[in-house]
Design goal:
The chain is an alpha/beta fold. The protein is 46% helix and 13% strand. The protein is built from 14 helices and 9 strands. The strands form 2 sheets. The protein has a 7-stranded mixed sheet with strand order 3-2-1-4-5-9-8. A two-stranded antiparallel sheet has the order 6-7. Helix 3 runs antiparallel to helix 6 and helix 8 crosses helix 11. It is globular, with a radius of gyration of 19 Å. The model has no long low-confidence stretch (mean pLDDT 94).
């Protein structure tokens, strides 16, 4: 019942334009069962295996990768991106394609998508998903700090960091942002999607703790034992190079500071849109009073940059001029 109410609320607040909805592909039951088996076989392995979750939490994660992420991308991300620049015919590099939900949402609208990820299991699922949906997409296993070497310059109209910047080390994040910007032609779009804002007071992405992303990495590592999140709080006890990298890749957030360093001062960048500016009142309706007050406070402290840099998650479209 609760899920049905949430679904109806999304349909009311985030209606998909008819021109986009008619392009959505619906696989049959056998196709969905095939994708589910691929997720179980290739993605839910090692630290993500079913044994590391309660039955309820495992089903939540399974359903998210099976269909819920795709539906969210169709309802929220695709209309936002398509308004900034029509997706049909766009050459898109998607950094952090994961298990391919976002790739399907883009490709079924006629975009020519190249998806990259360093997670081999996720890429296997992405390829299986694309086959079931009957879309063409190029999936490659490369690190985001190899962008220019792999693809050269001028071959993409948009480069999307899809829920990926927060999972990189700082060195990778700066290098990939710098390289992506250099690869874009004038008028090209750099897109950041679903990256937790380091400046926000609550970490809803990784630890589900207040002020977590404000902490230095080593302190955050040790403090993770207080997290209410399963398959997180119990993992980080010994601070070794291997456990540290794993911890950082779970997601530490970022802020406008990386953009300042990698591509130029943010107050001079042409921000075409943020998700909050796109949704307007619909975005404010989902915020609590403290969320609105906190964002307003950040804007007063630094009034010279786009307010999208002060949302709880960074959803930004930046045009190269």
């Amino acid at each position: 019942m609760k899920q049905s109410v949430k679904r109806l609320a999304k349909q009311w607040l985030l209606p998909v334009p008819t021109a986009l909805r008619k392009n959505q592909i619906k696989p049959d039951h056998a196709g969905l069962a095939h994708i589910e088996q691929a997720i179980r076989t290739h993605y839910h392995q090692d630290w993500r295996s079913e044994a590391h979750y309660s039955p309820e939490k495992y089903q939540e994660d399974l359903q998210a990768h099976l269909s819920e992420r795709l539906e969210n991308d169709r309802r929220l991300i695709v209309p936002w991106l398509n308004k900034a620049k029509p997706l049909r015919g766009q050459r898109i590099l998607e950094i952090g394609c994961g298990t391919g939900s976002s790739t399907i949402a883009l490709a079924e609208q006629g975009a020519q998508v190249t998806g990259i990820d360093i997670d081999q299991g996720a890429l296997k699922v992405a390829r299986e998903r694309a086959a079931v949906y009957g879309v063409s997409a190029d999936f490659q296993s490369i690190n985001a700090n190899q962008l220019v070497k792999t693809f050269g310059k001028g071959n993409f109209d948009s480069i999307i960091f899809f829920a990926s910047l927060e999972h990189m080390t700082l060195t990778e994040r700066l290098a990939s942002l710098r390289d992506a910007w250099s690869m874009l032609p004038l008028g090209g779009l750099l897109v950041i999607i679903e990256t937790p804002n380091r400046l926000w007071f609550f970490d809803s992405h990784t630890s589900r703790l207040p002020f977590f992303n404000w902490l230095p990495d080593k302190l955050a590592f040790r403090y993770s034992k207080f997290s209410p999140r399963e398959n997180f709080r119990e993992l980080y006890r010994q601070y070794t190079p291997e456990s540290t990298e794993h911890f950082l890749r779970r997601g530490r957030g970022m802020s406008f500071h990386e953009l300042d360093i990698a591509i130029g001062e943010v107050q001079k960048l042409k921000v075409v849109s943020s998700i909050s500016s796109f949704l307007g009142m619909r975005y404010r309706l989902k915020q609590s009073a403290i969320d609105r007050d906190y964002k307003n406070l950040l804007g007063k402290i630094y009034p010279d940059i786009h307010p999208g840099f002060f949302d709880d998650h960074l959803y930004l479209i930046i045009e190269k001029t």
